[in-house]
Automatic annotation (TrEMBL):
Keywords: ATP-binding, DNA-binding, Metal-binding, Nucleotide-binding, Repressor, Transcription, Transcription regulation, Zinc, Zinc-finger. InterPro entries: ATP-cone_dom, RNR_NrdR-like. This is Transcriptional repressor NrdR. Negatively regulates transcription of bacterial ribonucleotide reductase nrd genes and operons by binding to NrdR-boxes. One of its GO terms (molecular function) is DNA binding. Transmembrane segments: none annotated. It holds the Pfam family ATP-cone. GO terms for biological process: negative regulation of DNA-templated transcription. Residues 122-142 are annotated as: Disordered.
């Protein structure tokens, strides 16, 4: 409270995060750049039905996970893996887009293999209702 005017002030405390260093594949180091992370996710989700707030939340989740690792240096491969994991949860097309650039796909076969791998891993949420009832022997048409 201000002793001169009796105005009451409110302050908010936040955790001060240490600046993380990204160790690139060539061994160079650079500060972790939130904007670069956001751009990568946004580019992968371009023209997909993914709201911007979902991308922002994914970026925040990735940054929180990286800070919880308690290491001042983070390999770029770890960041890439975390981005792939988040995109896999958000949108399968965005995931394949990101993976194709990150892993530097050279031909269509690599895309096909990744899509087949993705479809094997895809599981329906047990809380999700069936859109149509499952087919039974009696419901099949001849």
């Amino acid at each position: 409270m201000c002793v001169d005017c009796d105005y009451r002030y409110t302050t908010y405390e936040t955790i001060e995060r240490t600046e993380l260093q990204v160790v690139k594949k060539d061994g160079t180091r650079q500060p972790l750049n939130r904007e670069k992370l956001t751009r990568g996710l946004t580019k992968a989700c371009e023209k997909r039905p993914v709201p911007l707030n979902r991308i922002d939340r994914a970026v925040e989740e990735i940054l929180t996970e990286l800070h919880h690792d308690n290491s001042p240096e983070i390999p770029s491969t770890l960041i890439g893996a975390k981005v792939m994991d988040k995109l896999h949860q958000i949108d399968p097309v965005a995931y394949v887009r990101y993976v194709s650039v990150y892993r530097e796909f050279d031909d269509v076969g690599e895309f096909i293999a990744e899509i087949q791998n993705l479809s094997k891993r895809a599981q329906r949420d047990p809380m999700q209702r069936e859109l149509l009832p499952p087919k039974t022997e009696n419901s099949k048409r001849s």
